[in-house]
Amino acid sequence: MKLNMPQMDEPELDVAPLIDLVFLLLVFFMVSCSLVKSEGDLGLQLPGMVAQAESVDMPDEQIIEIKANGRIYLNSREYDSFASTELPTLTDTLRRYKAACDAAKTKALITISASDDTKQQRVIDVMNACAAAHIKNITFSGAEGGS
Question: pTM here?
Fold first, then answer.
């Protein structure tokens, strides 16, 4: 026996209340967001570099000599041990030199003078120290004598 099922109507979705809700949310977020003061509008003064009162005579360049035995001299003064690959004392001195050059608005220039018998790894160690101090102007000069 065949039963007659009542015909169901196709469900409909009423879009008008959804549009009203979206506009209400849009107006709410526009009003609430304009009340918050953004960080860019705050009157903050960040610390800057202090101008020097008197000029300091800086040498045009710093000369780093690398001897054949691995000893490193910056302007005729020995830095770090010959076995150290990190060169912390030289790196700190180069950082202070870079900061002084930045304050004086000059370029930090380094000349590396390696003896003919110097191992290449030692030159790389010195270049790494310069890179750690953010010094980019490095030149090389020939050694006057192999000691």
Answer: 0.58
